[in-house]
Amino acid sequence: MNEDAMRRFPVPDYEDLPEDLRDRIDEETEEAGFTPNVFSAFAYKPSHFRAFFAYHDALVSDTPLAREEVEMIVVAVSGANDCLYCVVGHGALCRIYAGAPKLADQLATNHRQADVSDHHMAMLDFAVTLTESPEAVTDEDVQRLRDAGFSPEEVWDIASVAAFFNLSNRMATVADMRPNDEFYAMGRSD
Amino acid sequence: MNEDAMRRFPVPDYEDLPEDLRDRIDEETEEAGFTPNVFSAFAYKPSHFRAFFAYHDALVSDTPLAREEVEMIVVAVSGANDCLYCVVGHGALCRIYAGAPKLADQLATNHRQADVSDHHMAMLDFAVTLTESPEAVTDEDVQRLRDAGFSPEEVWDIASVAAFFNLSNRMATVADMRPNDEFYAMGRSD
Amino acid sequence: MNEDAMRRFPVPDYEDLPEDLRDRIDEETEEAGFTPNVFSAFAYKPSHFRAFFAYHDALVSDTPLAREEVEMIVVAVSGANDCLYCVVGHGALCRIYAGAPKLADQLATNHRQADVSDHHMAMLDFAVTLTESPEAVTDEDVQRLRDAGFSPEEVWDIASVAAFFNLSNRMATVADMRPNDEFYAMGRSD
Amino acid sequence: MNEDAMRRFPVPDYEDLPEDLRDRIDEETEEAGFTPNVFSAFAYKPSHFRAFFAYHDALVSDTPLAREEVEMIVVAVSGANDCLYCVVGHGALCRIYAGAPKLADQLATNHRQADVSDHHMAMLDFAVTLTESPEAVTDEDVQRLRDAGFSPEEVWDIASVAAFFNLSNRMATVADMRPNDEFYAMGRSD
Amino acid sequence: MNEDAMRRFPVPDYEDLPEDLRDRIDEETEEAGFTPNVFSAFAYKPSHFRAFFAYHDALVSDTPLAREEVEMIVVAVSGANDCLYCVVGHGALCRIYAGAPKLADQLATNHRQADVSDHHMAMLDFAVTLTESPEAVTDEDVQRLRDAGFSPEEVWDIASVAAFFNLSNRMATVADMRPNDEFYAMGRSD
Amino acid sequence: MNEDAMRRFPVPDYEDLPEDLRDRIDEETEEAGFTPNVFSAFAYKPSHFRAFFAYHDALVSDTPLAREEVEMIVVAVSGANDCLYCVVGHGALCRIYAGAPKLADQLATNHRQADVSDHHMAMLDFAVTLTESPEAVTDEDVQRLRDAGFSPEEVWDIASVAAFFNLSNRMATVADMRPNDEFYAMGRSD
């Protein structure tokens, strides 16, 4: 694991980790070809590692949202929160899942200028509003999502992804997690 | 379970829930004397129920922070995010765990005016800054916590509690979760 | 009078006050069963004491607004300004005048989630907008109040209450006025 | 009285006003050579007229602050709140009392660029902070004023003037009070 | 040239300037009767002097907008950016070109309260939005300008003037450019 | 030239452009291997095309700042203003001039987390503050740049680059200029 995975807390040694963490890290490393630094960073506190990735897994596996939709939300929210790790790491996933090499840079910079459908723009508007002004979300905001064709469960899930990355963005920034070099370039060719 | 636990999504019937959810809800109901509405609300989506409470449990059970410190952070963060359910629900817990009937109202309104030690004021300043301006957290902010006597693990945990309630606050507001009547008055006498 | 009525200016001795201030303080003390700290605090400067309470008295005595409506506005405005004294002190009055034990906590946290009629929500939206963005109040905002059924005089009075507590909140925060212990718990049972 | 003194409420007829209001208006008219529109506007509600000007009179007559200092605070606060009536009306007073034809435009635009002493800059910084972020005023802000040479009573009075114009600015903007033509040009020559 | 034209950079000697700068300065001085300080200030760096005034000249000479419309935009934008030099300097030009002695103070303080037509209010709303929230400008904002009767080229030019003064305001504030005394009073009589 | 260079104004035909614009476009196209869309977009109004690029050229050719420093400022400022065209287009230039494939994504997302020296961090802090809060730039901000080793002329130039891109960002967003596909990927390998 990368010692420079984050800069404000020490990264533990792989050998010292509980077996279930090592298994998950092995699996991710095999799949990605490298260990994404968020795994090395959260290993600092195994109980949080387990909780964080379990929540993440629920969000991406038990949802009518397509995976590319989830990643679009993540990148727009992380851009609004100015979170380096999540913009770069999930920017790579967004490019890959959406098969759209330019999409992540558009979403991270200003989702209003992104090449997305009206359906997806409504989803992103909602996620960014919930990020920037949670106190001001009203029935009208929820209704706008429903009018754009999202089911109640999809509304819940869009909110959940946005909310979870309001957690993730804050942890990544506090710890100064560093995106792996690989993430910057992944998925940039058609 | 209270049908009015939240106003923007339907509350499921207790009988229709998976057994592990019913068990957890029974346990909470027995302990509190009523079912806190956040359990009824998250039951809308069992996979999220499990992930949400597992993360919460890790935060309060595996930490050098005292439970009253955790609740102080929760109330200050939820006040900054204007989240009704969390201010009222965790306000009750804060009063009870801290044995301080006035503390929650102070923290929810303006943590700067709360009757807390300098040590705790540093903790709350950090949590509120992370909530309101996550992008601007710097080495100096982290150092200020260390100077106030918090260990690295405590810094991580303070950040984690603040981050998690940035998730919770957004879900509670989107769903318009309603605090149980009991929470408003609990812990208000010395 | 409580020496700790405020923390950034000295509280004068009751015996040293002009007679009209002592009379007013006696009256308030008899009515409330204790001396609300705002009276002890403003006694620091008798000419301001007189002006402050005369304005306050005009607002609550010469208006078609019900007293509970006045207190609802006060709590929502004071919540928006994060003012401890006014949220707690007028929270008590709001609970009592409205006969609604939960209302003040809802208004102070997020008026958008409060259990109020559409008529009162329009009133509160206006008061909070005037508090947070006075420069942006337009004909449309005023018209919305008229459409919600408020007379021109009521519009003036809603604005006046909101404006006056933008004064009060600032004085209470600068002086670090402390809510009396009694206020925290008053009016919390049905 | 000018029918166009304000645009969102009707201006009453002078003849219909209570005698004490007519007396005050006569006095002001004689002194200024015209009736400042704020008097015509507040006459809409006589009880508020009395309270408003009584508070104002206390602020300018019972204070160790020089009148020009009071007007400097008023203009900086009103500029921060984008209030047309108060910037123009009190801009005139500021120019006259300070004998400084350029000062009001500087204060209304950006007090940081105004030609004032360090002593007065501290006073203005405090007044503008209290206007824009009342919740964030701390012991340090008050201490900075004390270090700049202001007595405790002067601190109270600086805060009181700033607080009162946070009331005035909101009333003037809600009512769309119009500055008299005379105010725009008064005091502009040395 | 005025040595006090700006306070954070040295003002060069007229004699040391390249001939084209001297010519332009002579011309402006002859026209205005004094050397506007922005010319003395930008002479600090001749290549920027040339570029800055060339852009400015293009904006005012090649446009279907009336010169008074250009100056109205400049004053509203500069007011939003709290820029002393531009509010005072262009305030004078605005008064003169529009033949409206009160207009500049209204626009600099709060364009929403200015005595302008609906057509011009739409123009000013757009310019101020572009100044304060450039990222949030959408098709609807542009359409509103078109609906208010502005041609596509006028939309481009309104945006260009607003954008250019977002440059100017920042240079003037960084350099602490001082408005010439003459500007404060120019154009104030009908 | 790309018809889709911008979406809110028509892109003119190359053949219809004045000769000096065609020459400049030819030159840029030869150098880059494609026509950067900002040239096609500004060709909408030739007088502005000339002024815009003349200012730009002065900024990059007459300065002690290294070109990579200029591009670092541009990307940080454009990220703060959420400007798609400038983040992507100048992100490419930043990567190339700095020989740093990851730098632009870091600067655009959150300059505080970028891999830059303290010297450059001071430069970027200044540029972003000037972008977000121009009214609040003070002597201390300028002194901090001087303390970080920047000469007065470099301070002027840092401010000028930041100011100019506050113009550019607004024009690019209003016109909805689209980054050329090439920019997204350029300079991403070491």
From TrEMBL, chains A, B, C, D, E, F:
InterPro entries xref list: AhpD-like, AhpD_core, CMD-like, Uncharacterised_peroxidase-rel
Keywords: Oxidoreductase, Peroxidase
GO molecular function term, any single one: peroxiredoxin activity
Domain Carboxymuconolactone decarboxylase-like: 46-101
Entry-linked PANTHER family: CARBOXYMUCONOLACTONE DECARBOXYLASE-LIKE DOMAIN-CONTAINING PROTEIN (PTHR35446:SF2), SI:CH211-175M2.5 (PTHR35446)
Name by which UniProt lists this protein: Alkylhydroperoxidase
Source species: Halorubrum ezzemoulense (Halorubrum chaoviator)
